[in-house]
Design brief:
291 residues; alpha+beta; Alpha-Beta Plaits; five-stranded antiparallel β-sheet; four-stranded antiparallel β-sheet; elongated
Length: 291
């Protein structure tokens, strides 16, 4: 026991002595690493601004893929530079990593540090990148968390939700993912009318709303297909208090919410104008007179 304690003290003393002897080299290594990180971040930022300037929104898929590629490469460079700096500093203070790499092997070292989850994150991140599950700026849902992809690397996916909260999700934990903005999206709107209304008249009025929306230059540029009523003007549901129609509209990625809101507003205004009633639940209370 005493020998082990003495050996530890000697090893610690040697490390401290080597640090004092080579502190300038260590400082230079750290400074170089910081410079590499700063330069990589600056280049990545400029690349993103260049992409925003040179690639139009009409080529959104190319733009998103460029964002994703830049994010992955920049993070990979920083990780490699950091590992190299750590190994060089270890050598400077007298900790030889060669016997560890030769004897136990890289896999043994990783497992020894309890980093099996890191391996899983990297493998899953690689598959996500190769299969292009999502890109930077896509709107996705992972588990019960939805938001915009702000950053992605082989280890972590970072998304920001509607409230502005940033979520860091290890790629190894992504078992089920939903991409709401892949290639195209679809606006879906349901509207109920009173049972006394003529369904053919309701369909005619809805078609008028669709035509007005398509003629609006502000919104028709994001609509890929004219809105339609499911079932060729059919009824989706006979509800407790309403006859329900379901409308769909194929749009550009991430525009489904804007078009859905516009459809609801225009349908409400048009129904008010032509006198079509949108019912709402009500309760009738009957009081028994015992007198």
């Amino acid at each position: 026991m005493e020998n082990n304690t003495d050996n530890l003290e000697i090893a610690t003393g040697n490390i401290f002595k080597n640090f004092l002897d080579n502190w300038l080299n260590i400082a230079i290594i750290i400074v170089v690493l910081l410079i590499v990180i700063i330069v990589v971040r600056i280049i990545a930022g400029r690349m993103r601004r260049l992409v925003d300037k040179k690639i139009s929104d009409e080529k959104m898929v190319i733009k998103k893929r460029t964002y994703t590629f830049t994010s992955v490469v920049s993070n990979l460079i920083i990780v490699v530079a950091s590992v190299a700096a750590i190994l060089i500093i270890a050598d400077q203070i007298g900790i030889s990593v060669t016997p560890l790499l030769a004897g136990a092997g890289v896999a043994g070292i990783v497992i020894g540090f309890g980093a099996q989850s890191l391996i899983k994150d990297l493998i899953n991140g690689t598959f996500i990148l190769l299969e292009q599950w999502y890109q930077i700026n896509d709107i996705i849902t992972i588990g019960d968390t939805s938001g915009v992809v702000e950053r992605f690397n082989l280890r972590t996916t970072v998304i920001r939700d509607l409230e502005g909260t940033l979520h860091f999700i290890p790629n190894g934990e992504i078992n089920k993912l939903s991409n709401r903005t892949h290639t195209w999206s679809r606006a879906l709107v349901k509207v109920g009318v009173h049972y006394s209304e003529n369904t053919d008249r309701v369909v005619e009025v809805l078609e008028e709303v669709f035509s007005e929306l398509m003629n609006d230059k502000k919104y028709n540029k994001v609509i890929l297909e004219r809105p339609t009523i499911l079932g060729e003007g059919g009824v989706s549901e006979l509800g407790d208090s309403a006859v329900v129609f379901t409308m769909i509209c194929k749009v550009k990625p991430a525009e489904q919410w804007t078009i859905s809101r516009q459809l609801r507003k225009r349908i409400k205004d048009k129904f008010d104008q032509v006198g079509i009633e949108i019912p709402y639940p009500c309760t009738n209370v009957y009081m028994r007179d015992k007198g």
